[in-house]
Amino acid sequence: MANSNLPRRIIKETQRLLSEPAPGISASPSEDNMRYFNVMILGPTQSPYEGGVFKLELFLPEEYPMAAPKVRFLTKIYHPNIDKLGRICLDILKDKWSPALQIRTVLLSIQALLSAPNPDDPLSDNIAKHWKTNEAEAVETAKEWTRLYASGA
Amino acid sequence: MGNIGSSSSGGRRRRSHHHHHLQANQVVPPAPPPPPPQPAAPPEAAGNRYVFAAATPYPPPPQYTPPPHYYQYSAYYPPPPPPIPAPLPAPYDHHRAGDLGWVPGGRYPCGPPPTSLMPYVEHQKAVTIRNDVNIKKESLRVEPDEANPGHFLICFTFDATVDGSITVFFFAKEGFDCNLTSTKEKVLEPITVSFKGGLGQKFRQPPGTGIDFSMFEEQELRKEGEMEVYPLAVKAEACPPNDNGLTGENQKLGGLNSQITQAVFEKKENGEYHVKVVKQILWVNGTRYELQEIYGIGNSVDGEFDGNDPGKECVICLSEPRDTTVLPCRHMCMCSECAKVLRFQTNRCPICRQPVERLLEIKVDDGASMVQQYGGRHLEMTNNAPTADVEHKPEGQEIPAI
Hints:
The complex is a heterodimer.
Chain A: H1 8-19, E1 25-29, E2 36-42, E3 53-59, E4 70-73, H2 103-115, H3 125-133, H4 135-149
Antiparallel strand pairs in A: 1-2, 2-3, 3-4
Helix pairs in contact in A: 3-4
Chain B: H1 11-14, E1 21-28, H2 43-46, E2 84-85, E3 117-118, E4 122-125, E5 133-135, E6 141-144, E7 151-160, E8 164-174, E9 180-182, E10 191-195, E11 198-204, E12 211-212, H3 218-222, E13 229-238, H4 246-252, E14 258-267, E15 273-284, E16 287-295, H5 297-301, E17 324-327, E18 331-334, H6 336-343, E19 358-361, H7 368-374, E20 378-381, H8 386-389
Parallel strand pairs in B: 1-20, 4-19
Antiparallel strand pairs in B: 1-16, 2-3, 5-7, 6-7, 7-11, 7-12, 8-9, 8-10, 8-13, 13-14, 14-15, 15-16, 17-18, 17-19
């Protein structure tokens, strides 16, 4: 994949992500494809994901920033808006995308989604059902999964 | 799904630093205020809503003849081209079953793209109109008149490039050609004070001429109901620079150039009143302009652009300075090149997602000194009737800091 002709916007965003990373978030471009980012998000405090280190991949399509980045969790996570394949149900990644948003804001939004699961608009029906019928138990499962899969070890 | 981007979770929009409100002006024809109550402009009229004094890139129409009362440039518009189908990016729909993976550079599994035709969006260039006297509307306030307990005096800061006069009207009604009359002249007479040219001047109404709020009903002071009388109107008039025939010309064009600031008095919780500006009007060479705010313009005109300031750069390329405003929402957030690209991708404002009707390019180079002195006031003209035109957005709409 050619890294020449990389839009200035992507170069600037990358520079700023590296020089001023958002708290609890790191994103670095792949060496062979500057549109592909390895991302790590720390589980927010006061959430079932606290203490976890979640890996994601982020790709900037050709149309970016007119089209949203593609983002997916690589670390297994128990969350009503994230499915078993790591796909994320988040409006700004779909119909609410705006070119004024950036990699940084997208990742901050995902971090916020971890703090505020929305079982009323689920991606994983089973997890959402669990969340709605027995939230305490669902939160326990999410904590357990965080320990099992996102311990960072 | 999560709704980080929806308007209900407005954390992104509520951040108030990076908050620069400056104003652009709209022309309203010198129709006799008060306007008769009339319904809002029908949708089909919206297409002709803004009329800009933009000479380029459109050639003057051969049939152009100036109408008698005000400048109307609607004939500059070329007929809109047929709608262009937008090259929509493939949506990434997680709800749909299918293989998950995307291959960098490859195509994604997707549902049928929403078919929509992009409306034609006009791209206009703004002209700057000189404003000789400007009352800084944030500075407008009342102060107690120590010599007359219970009375309050109108105070504000203003800039003037020429000599002129300021008149404070209480319960003022606007008539033809931006002439103001007081509807309670017997109780509170208009007060006129002359001034010399100069920037950052302080105005304080002479003691003894202030308002005693206890004499009036709260509704009256807040201007509830009756729409045409403003509890406070301040008119700042510029004298012509000299008398060598200019007075005559000004008279011909509808009197002295002036700025009118219309305001209401709002009672705070502690019982004190404060001034809230509702509208500012410019009367320049016989044309009435209404000032409207452009959100984010201050970012682009204050000081130098060094190419690496998140507050000044185009939100799309992050490289060029912002010079294009989206209308009708008035978010100045893009450079003209990105605005051109955006037109073919979406019809939503990048900041607020409202539909885009027009793109207005504001180059600040020509009037740079004026922009800095007067806080970046730019004019755009519309031939709309006042009732259909006035758009007061709630305060607090702003360019989010990203």
